[in-house]
What does this fold into?
Amino acid sequence: MTTRELTTVCVIGAGTMGRGIAQIALAAGHSVALVDPDSAQLHAAATDIGSRLARRHPDVAGRLGELLHTHTAVADAAVGPRTLVIEAVLESLAVKTDVLSSAAEHFGAQAILATNTSSLSVTEIAAGTPTPERVVGMHFFNPVPVMRLVEVVRGVQTDPDVADEVADLAVAWGKDVARVRSAPGFIVNRVARGFYGEALRLVEEQVTDPATIDAVVRGAGQFRMGPFELMDLIGNDVNAAVTRSVWTAFNFDPRFEPSRIQDELVAAGRYGRKRGQGFYSYAEGATPPRSTPVAPAGRPLQVVSGRGSSQLDSFLVRAGVEVEHDPQSEPGVVLLDDTVVRITRGRTAQEESAALGGAPVVLVDRVLSPDDASAVAVATSAGTGDTLGQLATILGDAGVSVHEVADAPGLVLARTLAVIINEAWETALHGVASPDDIDVAMQLGTNYPSGPFEWTRRWGQADVLELVDGLWSAYHDTRYRASRRLRLPT
It folds into this structure.
């Protein structure tokens, strides 16, 4: 579908999302009908759209009077031979179905009906309209003019040509498209649940506090924001509602179970930034709590590196530490005097110590890029003495702060990313989307530093599976069951 083939675009809903969608359609050269029952909302939307277009597309802004038409009812919008209708109304099955049905009756059988739902079934929405084969999901992300991703979602009844047309149009509007089969949460809202869920569970289990988790996820994972900062930004009410919607749609699968901690915040009205209080305070003059890194405490007398400890070796090289290499020692470990330092495999430090006959163990979290990491979580078994401080000295010289957490399986980043990766593989297994589309969606829809299949390549499929199986062994909770596709050779 090209812009010339469409006579008009009709956006229903003049809220934040509707305004953004109308703006990018106008910028692409379309005539746009913007519909909302609230005339004041329409006036505010037109003013907002005009001011934004004036900054980036002054030529379009100068023609806004002829390109943008506002109406309080769909029936008042002009009918062209081919119209794309995009609804951006309340996230309610009944409301969306009613709106699209009215649009189908008004614009005719050739109209394409797109729903901007973020979590409802496109198949179910389509089933309530007179032309289900013309209904497709077109899930934009906020703010629409800035976020590059559009999830194009096909329901059971969606005509493949309709999905193709809409995908081509989104590309023509400057968007990157991830193609999705209608399933709860599509890609982004499904795969991203572990980013929040594991962080909340770590706090529930008193492994550490939100500030430490945020610091580790940013510093070890290269994320722009930690999960608690992001939940406060999104709104805990919104984030919790999406989690509950996905959990319910998946028949209460434990993988998506909501958190009582977040539910309590919502009940207290602590939604986050918009209310001035969430996991952190945003009151004037408030300073969010910060994680306190482990203090340096001298240097070990001897540092011995085993085979295949690439992350630890990279840290040692960055720190300029003289290392003795022992090819006969266990793979993936470093010895600081008599203490074993190793990267987490999904087991606890105490379990690793027991497997070594009681040798003291410092367990180090995984990072996405050893050359760029600036923070890392660690946990210890009994008997490690001053080793943690010695490790903090070494890693401090490498520019990496050390954050001690309680001895929990998978620590912080390794555990969180392993759960996200596992869900991505499960999503691909079910044919919801391809691995490439999943990586594109997670990078562009959530601003992840890279996608879960790229993480798999960095860490190694076998190592990721070992992490997930370690979590399963510790919890025997089905939220940690490994995807069958993750077990298959690639």
Notes: The chain has 21 helices and 15 strands.
